[in-house]
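Much of our argument rests on the idea that a fold can be written as discrete symbols. In the encoding step, the backbone of a single protein was reduced to a row of integers, each denoting a local shape. We regard such an encoding as a compact summary of how the chain folds. The record that follows shows the chain in one-letter code together with its fold in token form:
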Amino acid sequence: MAIIGKKKRTLRERTKEVDQKLALSEGRRRDLNQKYRGPDPRTTEYFGNLSSRTSAQNGGIISTHYQITPVLNGHYKVTIDLSKWLPQYGLLSFTREFQRIGSEDKHFRDLCSLNGTLLQYTSESLFPDKYDPRKKKVMIVLGNPATHSVAGGMFFYSRSDGNRHQFWGKLEEAGLITKIIDDTLEEEAKVRKKLILDGETSQKYLLGLTTFYSFPTPVSGDYKDVKGVEALFRPVISRVQRMELDRLLSYEFSQDTLFVFTQKSSYCYASSSLCRKRLIYWPLKGAGSSGMDLVDLLNLKNNSI
């Protein structure tokens, strides 16, 4: 009798199977907890009520399964115990992909570490230390940090080709920051950071910068940008989103501010929890992405508040 062996599956097929198992188990737990209003049987977290289980102050958060330090000079650190979020086969898949990203990006290796099930990384947010009550607060919520920008100490430190990023030109056009041209990108970054910290970017506005997802990724490769974060954390992305929203709301600068989201997915998620009168969607690319478009959006919101 001939013995027919099982067809060997490809890595892509095995990864897809793991993702499906994780998504199924996550969905089942969520359905049960929403139905019975009880805690997650594996992590003891209450779905949809994460804020009640956290202690937060100005960006520093201590929760059951993660910690976020307060912002210091534009940087903060995040620690997550993945064993509370992922089953064993999920941890193996995450570890494999995490190591692959690190093998392709030096800045990622410097900023992120995975020791067993303990994930730690450095991220960025930047808010004024000094407040002028006559100025209106604007917090631009970007997608997620680029590893080379976190390493360089400033948002949009440069484009991927090493040249100046057009983001700053758009903010200059919108009147949110004064025009800065220096000899080097490093000097420009230092000047911009000081202006933001001193609350002197504009005569009309106080400017704050943060990201919706705190996890940094490279600007190239399979796990670049927001799509990379959502792919890596796909099985537990709802938990990550709740964590990030708690962080946004913990910032002192968030009080009475206009939130300008540059990513449609994060804008839609925040719309379910934040006051829509203080939410703006302003894309960084394509139609409606100019500095003058941002001026119109800010004026429209200011007139409606």
Q: What stands out?
A: Confidence is low (pLDDT under 50) at residues 25-53. The chain has two domains: 26-124, 136-304. The two ends are 80 Å apart (CA to CA). Residues 168 and 202 are 13 Å apart (CA to CA).
